[in-house]
Amino acid sequence: MNQPRINMYSGIHKALRLYMSDTQSRLARTDAADHEDLHGALAQVRELLGAMRRHVEHERNFVHPALNARRPGSAQVTEGDHDHHEWAIDKLLALCEHCASAAGAARFQHLEHLHLQLSVFIGENLVHMNLEETENNAVLWACYSDEELHAIHERIVAAIPPEEMQATLRWMLPALNPAERAGMLLGMRAGMPPPAFAGVLEMARSLLSVRDMQKLEAALAAPQPLAA
Hints:
It is a single chain. The chain is mainly α. The protein has 2 domains: 10-160, Four Helix Bundle (Hemerythrin (Met), subunit A) (Up-down Bundle), CATH 1.20.120.520; 176-228, no CATH class. It is 82% helix and 0% strand. It has 9 helices and no strands. It has helices spanning 10-28, 35-70, 76-101, 105-143, 146-158, 162-175, 178-191, 194-207, 210-221. Helix 3 (76-101) runs antiparallel to helix 4. The radius of gyration is 20 Å and the shape is globular. The protein starts with 9 loop residues before the first helix and ends in a 7-residue tail after the last helix. 20% of the residues are buried. The mean pLDDT is 95.
């Protein structure tokens, strides 16, 4: 049975899909008359938009150059989408400010407008992510070996500050399936000091169901094959 090719997009896209859907659901049920509820939801929208902007930057700095280096112009559609996403992020951040500063009936109207516009942004990103995971991956797989793709992914990870990585894990850990989650944590355990990895496990315990945590602990306890 052939091993699946390295997919640099899959894990982070699963995390962002969960982050987007959770944020949209939270915004949809937010009570505009409840100051704490409203400002908590707006804070999560802003945090999501910051994560989306950083994701765009990582792909622009690492993935697009790789695509264009071996198939010139192959990142053009994705680059255009990202320009639009940057504009949409700025627009949504401005809508957050309008909503936060409004009062009375206007606050309800701004909140509903923000919810609808965030829904459009999320829908566009879901379509965009599908393009990356199909068309862009086809180019990467045709032009790069798995060893080369792994090296690109490692450069992306090395460029992410610890606080950003922690925020990403908050959404990635529950978004992955058990095999993906175990593979990620086995790799992290091999490259992290034990106290740092213990912190990752504590985060996992706070986010995963009992059953998923049991599967993860079993995978981590299983004997690992020796490297060739």
